[in-house]
Amino acid sequence: MNQGYSSIEKFLSSLFDISLLCAEPLEVEEASLLRCRVSVILRKLHRKDSKVIKLRFGYDDGQAHSSEEVAHTLRMTQEHVCNIENLFGRSLRARLLNDFIGSVIKRKNGADWNSCSISVLDLSTRSRVCMRRLGISTIGELVRKTAEDLLDMDGLGQITLSEIRDKLGEKDLILKGD
Q1: What's the pTM value of the predicted model, to 2 decimals?
Q2: CA 66: distance to chain centroid?
Q3: Most buried of 10, 29, 34, 77 (most Cβ within 10 A)?
Q4: Contact call for residues 99 and 88 (beta carbons, < 8 A)
Q5: Residue 169 contacts by C-beta under 8 Å, 6 or more apart in sequence?
Q6: Which of 78-92, 108-122, 150-164 has the lowest mean pLDDT?
Q7: Which residues partner with 176 through β-bridges?
């Protein structure tokens, strides 16, 4: 990924065929959503990693820089810059695909999540295993459970419960009793 991308959109095109996500060019609302998703990921990155991405793609000033320029400016190796870029790309790709799947399901089901697989929540392996042990395979089955129901499960603690609540919250859903 040490190519000279001049924008987030071009970078995304290198990750996957963006035409699969958008039949038409990005409109203002979609571009705003993309920028919002990028901002969320940048806030989760280490400060220096975030600076790498912002410089690399001209996020703040519109002036993109090569990985070599970024490495020189931030006094790190070009390989380190490329590794950060790859991590960012995987994270952004997963988030955008999750958004896309969610929007398709909303259009198809009129925002009815009951029969939707919990896989769209993009849960960690530990959480997915706990859901499987509980026999929960759809979002509808999950939201009919209380936090206490989930905490009674062996191996499911506060951290896993917090992740489940966060992932449901991203879809404007909550557990029973929350």
Answers
A1: 0.47
A2: 25
A3: 34
A4: no
A5: none
A6: 108-122
A7: 146
